[in-house]
Design brief:
The complex is a heterodimer of chains A (620) and B (174). Chain A is an alpha/beta fold and 620 residues long. Helices cover 40% and strands 12% of the residues of chain A. Chain A is built from 26 helices and 16 strands. Chain B is globular and about 45 Å long. The chains are: A alpha/beta (620), B alpha/beta (174).
Chain lengths: 620, 174
């Protein structure tokens, strides 16, 4: 009992406590015990006294609680301001190049909401890259809207809505600092790259971007930028040296396009303290830097940049080392490092995104390959056997001085005879071509023909006059090339386009052509596939029929056999993404083997390879 | 988003909370423009009420903790103040008693909420505002045109939840 309660009892005692009760209480406390030691004290009656206590006394314990705000710490992230561009016109339905445009909608949330039985649309979220370690970096990517709604909200008007795998590719590129987009030709690497670039600029992740591509592809990139991101200002590095240098170093240009030659030349000439710095460097047809020691590769690596993307449909054309060259550019391996196949495979999983048509375009019209195995005409046969016999005798006579280049020259001579006999002009391939073209022309179809030699193309053109052939090869000035492609597309009487592998194999969209002829075989099926995919690509409405001319019992048949046997060698590196595009070129031993000759030097397995595509095709 | 004028902007705040095992609750606030593009994000460290607070607040504990305590802190901290705050948790509506910014709970478009006082259809969602501030819906309906009819206002809340989960995984789970 508390003191206060005692106090209350004591204060009231005089009025309420009966003295008789007190006496009784005293009596009740009496204890009978032995009278020893302290015990006598226990026998005494207790003394009960009362005293008065004031109610104003401060109480010793009062439970109290005041609502106080708990201090809370916060983690914050401010996202960078993106570059604002003028929005495209709302009523735009056609791009400047006449492509039919379509506005895409945001993803539908669920089936019921659609209400029309439409399936729910997939949502593509941007994932933080595995090498983003800081929380802020990871949150930046997680907080971005799903790609579908991001693109829709910005009124991105597109010729067609991206496919699911393209959304994934865009999201992957957007969040990658080092990336090799190695989709098979025709799957839309250009569109995915342009859209990812657009999003980087919009989200403030990049302000200055440079894209390097082969010179013939510059008009193609300009056109694609116009189609896919009309509002983005694109400047091409061209003109005299002074102007080019100004363009390289001028700040405030969001997207710069340059060709490889310009890059290699101009960057070396800019003083160290004036070297431009980019947020992103994109290499298109990145196999151009497959030789790590080349001037081009060194120039690409020397450009200061925060992100490095490489685009190619053929990450490996001949040797695994080519992939290492790309990884070095992407700064994912140390300088001059030589990763083994296992390491390359591991890096490929992390830094390469490769999809094939087989995997993603199941509903795309098929590509129908047919090998036209032709007997040489009598005149060709005679010329061929004579040249082969004389050539082999010459090679044998050379003894130890023979080199692969000597053999290679013989191969080229024989291949040319399989195209047509230089003396009589007889050609089994031309006969077959004419027969096919009559059918194609009659049905209003269009065909593309590829040859290794501009000389063959020029020889073919007058013979195909009735089909209004158009010529597109290295000898055609760059400015005249675009009108040729436009004429081929628009002129219903132009039934055939004659192209060289070097100039026409990459980057062009010719999906309206239903037929492809490979008049002679390129050294590497990867290049052939690039050529074929000019026609067999996204947007194609009908099957594409590919005819490969192979002269029976000739060097063409032997080369084809050797290459076919080697196609699968790199599947281990690229995994599911590998397909027939990946193959080896011929090495020295194999070149000698074509004529049952033995390599005469120590480096029997050294790859001689053909000369670079452009040089070979145009040199002949 | 159609009709978005150059100078007319709508800043949307998306607020969510999450319970962290044994450590209390954390909250996140994402500010976006009317197109859903992120501008700023703030999240709190975990907050756990003590026993006294649990007893004294009783049933109003969650509204106090999430709405007043976590919500107000987040709102104080963001440098870009939103025109409205959207959440999926009705407890966070309590925040409206401590701010002049309208706070609404996003209901799914298929939910059968009547479109009358206190609710507003915005994008693909129906928003339910705090019962004591029914004029909020009316005020915001003037800026309705800035939001596309097909916009999904529940989607950014998923982003906030993902960001909170990432924060818990990266920072608080250590």
């Amino acid at each position: 009992m508390s003191d206060s309660e005692f106090g209350i009892a004591a204060e009231k005692a005089p009025d309420v406590v009966d003295p008789a009760l007190i006496r009784e209480a005293k009596r009740g406390t009496r204890v009978d015990v032995a009278q020893t030691g302290f015990n006598p004290a226990l026998g005494r009656l207790p003394t009960i006294e009362t005293q008065t206590v004031s109610l104003n006394t401060v109480l010793a314990f009062v439970p109290s609680w005041t609502a106080r705000r708990i201090p809370i710490k916060c983690i914050g992230l401010t996202l960078p301001e993106g570059i604002e561009f003028l929005p495209p016109k709302v009523d735009t339905t056609k791009s400047s190049d006449g492509v039919e445009l379509k506005r895409i909608g945001p993803p539908r949330k669920n089936f019921d909401e659609a209400g029309d039985g439409e399936k729910p649309r997939k949502i593509t979220r941007i994932k933080p890259p595995s090498d983003a370690l800081s929380l802020q970096d990871r949150l930046f990517y997680l907080l971005q809207p799903p790609l579908e709604s991001w693109l829709a909200e910005q009124e991105l008007i597109m010729p067609f809505e991206p496919f699911g795998y393209q959304y994934e590719g865009i999201a992957w590129l957007f969040s990658s600092h080092s990336a090799l987009l190695a989709d098979e030709m025709g799957l839309g690497k250009t569109m995915q790259t342009i859209t990812a670039i657009r999003l980087l600029l919009r989200s403030g992740q990049a302000r200055r971007i440079v894209l390097i591509c082969p010179k013939p592809l510059i008009p193609n990139w300009q056109r694609e930028f116009k189609t896919w991101a009309e509002e983005l200002p694109v400047v091409t590095v061209e003109g005299n040296g002074q102007r080019r240098r100004m363009l390289w170093t001028m700040p405030g240009i969001p997207i710069l396009i340059a060709n490889y030659e310009s890059m290699a030349r101009d960057i070396a000439e800019i003083p160290e303290d004036e070297q431009p710095k980019f947020d992103l460097l994109v290499l298109d047809e990145a196999q151009r830097i497959k030789n790590r020691d080349s001037r081009t590769a060194e120039a690409a690596r020397s450009i200061r940049r925060r992100r490095s993307w490489a685009l190619t449909g053929t990450p490996i054309e001949n040797r695994p080392e080519e992939l290492a060259a790309l990884f070095e550019f992407m700064e994912v391996i140390p300088k001059a490092a030589n990763p083994d196949l296992r390491q390359l495979s591991k890096l490929a999983k992390k830094y390469i995104l490769r999809r094939t048509k087989d995997l993603v375009m199941k509903d795309m019209p098929p590509r129908i390959d047919r090998d036209a195995e032709l007997e040489l005409t009598d005149a060709q046969e005679l010329a061929y056997r004579t040249a082969e016999k004389e050539g082999i005798i010459q090679l044998n006579d050379m003894g130890d001085t023979i080199t692969v280049q000597h053999v290679f020259e013989l191969v080229l001579r024989l291949k040319q005879i399989t195209n047509f006999d230089p003396l009589t002009g007889e050609s089994a391939k031309l006969e077959r071509l004419m027969a096919d073209m009559e059918e194609i022309g009659a049905s209003g179809g269009k065909a593309i023909l590829f040859s290794q030699w501009t000389k063959t193309i020029d020889w073919l053109a007058p013979k195909l006059k009735e089909f209004n052939p158009l010529i597109y090869h290295g000898g055609v000035p760059t400015k005249k090339r675009e009108p040729i492609l436009a004429k081929f597309k628009e002129d219903p009487d132009a039934h055939i386009l004659l192209m060289s592998y070097g100039t026409g194999a990459v980057g062009l969209n010719l999906q309206f052509a239903g037929y492809v002829f490979l008049f002679d075989r390129w050294w590497n099926p990867a290049i052939e596939d690039q050529a074929i995919n000019r026609a067999h690509r996204i947007g194609v409405k009908n099957p594409v029929i590919v005819t490969r001319f192979i002269s029976k019992n000739t060097i063409e048949e032997r080369i084809d056999r050797v290459l076919r046997e080697k196609r699968e060698l790199f599947a281990a590196i690229l995994g599911d993404g590998a397909n027939d595009n990946v193959s080896l070129g011929l090495n020295a031993t194999e070149i000698f083997g074509l004529f049952d000759l033995k390599a005469r030097h120590k480096g029997g397995s050294k790859s001689i390879g053909p000369k670079p595509v452009e040089q070979t095709t145009d040199a002949a | 988003m159609s009709g978005a004028g150059k100078t007319e902007h709508l800043r949307l705040g998306f607020m969510e909370t999450m319970e962290v095992d044994g450590r209390g609750h954390i909250g996140g606030l994402l500010i976006t423009n009317q197109n859903g593009r992120p501008l700023e994000f703030q999240c709190t460290t975990p907050v756990k009420p003590n026993r006294t607070q649990e007893i004294l607040f009783g049933e109003s504990l969650r509204a106090w903790l999430l709405g007043e305590l976590i919500g107000s802190t987040l709102l104080d901290r963001v440098s870009i103040k939103p025109n409205m705050i959207i959440t999926s948790d009705p407890n966070l509506l309590e925040l409206r008693n401590h701010t002049s910014i309208p706070v609404a709970c996003a209901a799914d478009a298929k939910s059968k909420l009547p479109e009358q006082g206190g609710t507003l259809r915005l994008g693909g969602s129906i928003l339910r505002f705090h019962g004591g501030y029914e004029l909020d819906a009316q005020t915001l309906s003037k800026q309705k045109h800035l939001i596309s009819d097909s916009a999904d206002l529940a989607e950014p809340l998923e982003r906030v939840r993902e960001a909170l989960a990432e924060t818990v995984k990266t920072v608080f789970a250590r």
